[in-house]
């Protein structure tokens, strides 16, 4: 994976006049599921696309915001994938590429572009939207990583390396770790079993979940505005925008916040949301 990312970064930096660029773009919050799916699907596209097509995974956040994503950084650092290899949204001009007729766009984890990117709709060639397959009657969380694994296994199973399996499996487990084991979707369980059978040296599920939970809740030194920006979602009717964020914390941390700061907590949260 690191070789692919380094090669993509190098081609992007060298090429002043790109002819064809296929960008895989994750959702705005850039959660672990979205990021890993973006990387894996761009890697798959690069292997099956003509050599004149530059396939790029683009993280849909500015580079400066990547420090907020502790669980994402952890799983990438575990595999020695440097942050410098990633391409962030503020480092590539998608609107210019689209205006020049060079852009193809695959959306991951969403079938909608933000209001600022509406003009890119003409470039969209594929949408990987797990919500369409989510069984809402059981309140099961959808996972784009399992859809990406399924497609790669169907079309080019030889591309699944142990490193890629580690990334995708970690992403799926992170998405499901708040659920009871018997409430993981059948598709997710099938994908996890295939990866574990193919690569028996992968760490136990419980170990990965435990470390990811610890990493997720480890927000020391992160202010409330940064936590809210990490999981920012936008809802817009074309005129009015509403920003919604999710803040994860342990029960111990919740008790501490309310016992020490309850008079100011809601005022601080409101101020942070307005600043967004």
Automatic annotation (TrEMBL):
InterPro entries: DHH_sf. Gene3D superfamilies: inorganic pyrophosphatase (n-terminal core) (3.90.1640.10). GO terms for cellular component: cytoplasm. PANTHER family: BNIP - RELATED, DHHA2 DOMAIN-CONTAINING PROTEIN. This is Prune homolog 2 with BCH domain. It comes from Corvus moneduloides.
